[in-house]
Amino acid sequence: MRKLSQKLLEVWIKIPRSVRIFVLNIITIFFFLHLLIAGLKSLFELSIELPVLLIAIIVSFLVMMIISKNN
User: Fold this and answer.
1) Per-residue pLDDT tens for 1-17?
2) What is the pLDDT, as a whole number, of residue 7?
3) In terms of residue numbers, what domain contains 19?
4) How far is Cα 68 from Cα 62, in angstroms, rounded to an integer?
5) What gap in Å lies between CA 64 and CA 58, rounded to an integer?
6) What is the pTM of this model?
7) pLDDT per position as a tens digit, 17-41
8) Phi, psi dihedral angles at 10 (to 5 degrees)
9) Would you say 12 and 24 are in contact if contact means Cβ atoms under 8 Å apart?
10) Which keywords accompany this UniProt record (predicted)?
11) Could you write out the DSSP letters of every residue in 30-47?
């Protein structure tokens, strides 16, 4: 297993740094877009009860206020 790890590391290091950063950024962007789309799908379902929707809106507003206060 150690030889396999070493071989993978050697292959990874041979890849140019800009390509490695691009790949990691694409994976991160895909992950957050997936979370955003899943959240929007669940938000627009008609089965969401009003109290749950109100709690989500209040929490979103508080997070937005915290982020804007830090900037």
Assistant:
1) 689 999 999 998 999 98
2) 93
3) 2-70
4) 10
5) 10
6) 0.48
7) 899 889 899 999 999 999 888 888 8
8) -65, -40
9) no
10) Membrane, Transmembrane, Transmembrane helix
11) HHHHHHHHHHHHHHT-TT
- First and final C-alpha spacing in the chain: 47
Beta strands in 1-71 (DSSP E): none
Query: Which pLDDT tens digit goes with each residue over 37-69?
Result: 888 888 777 677 788 888 988 999 898 888 888
Residue 68's identity, in one-letter code, is S
Query: What count of residues does the chain have?
Result: 71
Encoding tokens for residue 60?
């979103």
With beta carbons less than 8 A apart as the criterion, state whether 12 and 20 touch: yes
Quote the CA–CA distance of 19 and 12 in Å, as a whole number.
10
Name the domain count of the chain. 1
Report how far residue 10's alpha carbon sits from residue 4's, in angstroms, rounded to the nearest whole number: 10
